[in-house]
Amino acid sequence: MVAAAHIIATADLVHRIEQTRQGVNWLITARRTDQWAKIEGIFYAARELCTRPIDGEAQRELWRMRHDLLELRIVLRREWQAKIEETTAKLLQDNQPLRQLGEMLSGLPPILQKSKDALSRAGNLPPVKMLSGLPLIRDYLDPKQQKQKEITQALDQTLDYPFMIELGWRLDHVLAVANQTEQEFWGTIGDELNAVAQVVQAIAEKVQQIELQYWLVEPYNELVERYRQLSQHNSLAQHSA
After folding, report:
1. Where would I find the H helices in the chain?
2. What's the helix, strand, coil split of the chain in %, to 5?
3. pLDDT by residue for the chain (241 residues), tens digit each?
4. Exposure string (b/e) for 103-137, b if CB count within 10 Å is 16 or more?
5. How far from 164 is each of 32, 71, 95, 174, 185, CA to CA, in Å?
6. Is residue 125 helix, strand or coil?
7. Other beta carbons within 10 Å of 212
8. How many CB atoms are closer than 10 A to CB 21?
9. Are the C-beta atoms of 141 and 105 separated by less than 8 Å?
């Protein structure tokens, strides 16, 4: 009866945990949907607004939309950074015991060779064949390949953040052109680019701590650099004019 009670209690706990996990996933999905809806709503509202002459009221509305986009990008960047910290911290913590295991197993080949030589001299060869398979176990337990796959999958799940941030830059630029504030846009985007570059640098540093690499670090840096060049080019053109 006691055992049955424990089984029932465990099953109930597992069911509650699964319900909680589903609830959290739904909240995350709803949050992301809300962010996408914000960008889409600004796009459609701006498109409708720009079908008529841009008077003073329209300019103020475009300014408000630009402010909303800036605030959304800041939220996305901070959420992205927090997610990176959470993901890499967990992988770094999980990597410690596996790294120690890999270091311990790295000493197996010399030990196996000594064991093989000793057993060969003793004329007892069958165990040597069994022991010779242990390096395969070492290779299987080597954490680097598995960790590379885990961190790539985990960081790939954050792709929505830089994608939405860059989409926000594009839409903000269009609104700035419509509002005749393109000069202000290129003049102030530098600080935001620096903040995004810091997030990318954090990704590179975190994965280096785990002695791994992430394939999107370089494309992220190229994206930031491309906008920096556009900002500098437009600033020089405006000064020349």
Report:
1. 2-49, 56-105, 108-121, 126-131, 134-141, 143-156, 160-178, 182-209, 217-240
2. 90, 0, 10
3. 555 555 555 656 555 655 555 555 667 788 889 999 999 999 999 999 999 899 999 999 999 999 999 999 999 999 999 999 988 887 777 655 445 445 554 554 554 455 445 545 555 544 444 444 444 444 444 667 887 888 889 899 999 999 999 999 999 999 999 999 999 999 999 999 999 999 999 999 988 887 888 999 999 999 999 999 999 888 777 666 5
4. eebeeeeeebeebbeebeeeeeeeebeebeeeeee
5. 10, 13, 31, 15, 18
6. coil
7. 19
8. 10
9. yes
Residues 46 and 168: beta-carbon distance below 8 Å: no
- The structure tokens listed for 19 are 């319900």
User: Quick check: 195 and 81 in contact, CB under 8 A?
Assistant: no
Structure tokens belonging to residue 98: 């596996």
Q: Tokens 């846009």 — which residue? A: 185
Residue in the block written with tokens 């040597």: 128
Q: Which residues contact 187 (CB under 8 A, 6 or more apart)?
A: 231, 235
